[in-house]
């Protein structure tokens, strides 16, 4: 028959090992009471010797120092009311002259504004062109008109004013009666004659151009 093994031994709890004894607890309690009594003794003694500042009380102030009163200021004299030393003058003023003039403020004249740039000269007007000259008949190239036989037999006479437009080449481009003679035969003969004429053309600026001329043509039968 086997012998039963003994039960295993359990170690004591670690908490029980750190637990203070009853005597140590009494010592701790006595130290707390002694500290409280000492604090109460010190606090009561401090209140008797001085007053602590409390909220709402006016803070203690030191006694005002005993200073001698300042002397009464003397009345200001002329030239010393500004607080400057005699002979000293403020900036911007001139010293009084010997004749007793009062100091006056010297004002600096600001520089004049820059002058505006000169306006450019107006463009020159173009030179007036010379007036156009009128066409003129070329001597030797103006054949006389033919007197119509029928008008000659009837004795028709008069002067016909013929208006002719002359081209740049001097050749008539159109010919018409400006003022008739009263005879259609004479008027027609005058127009036919001027159509065969040649002219110096009208000139403008040295260049030939178109012009108009009125030419008188007279018809007088020979007696």
Plain-language structure description:
The chain is an alpha+beta fold and 223 residues long. The chain is built from four helices and seven strands, in the order H-H-E-H-E-E-H-E-E-E-E. It has a three-stranded antiparallel sheet, with helices on one face. The chain is rod-shaped and about 190 Å long. The mean pLDDT is 74.
Could you tell me the mean pLDDT? 74
How do the strands of the widest beta sheet line up side by side? Answer: 3-2-7
What is the total tally of β strands? Answer: 7
DSSP summary: helix tally? 4
Radius of gyration: 72 Å
Task: Please write the string of helix (H) and strand (E) elements.
Answer: HHEHEEHEEEE
Biggest beta-sheet profile: 3 strands, antiparallel
Task: Record keyword descriptors for this entry.
7 strands; two-stranded antiparallel ribbon; 4 helices; alpha+beta; about 220 residues; about 25% helix; 3-stranded antiparallel beta sheet
Summarize the structure.
By secondary structure, the protein is an alpha+beta fold. Helix content is 23%, strand content 16%.
Mind sketching the topology for me?
Blueprint: H1 14-18, H2 22-49, E1 136-137, H3 149-154, E2 158-166, E3 172-179, H4 184-195, E4 199-200, E5 202-204, E6 207-209, E7 211-219
Antiparallel strand pairs: 1-4, 2-3, 2-7, 5-6
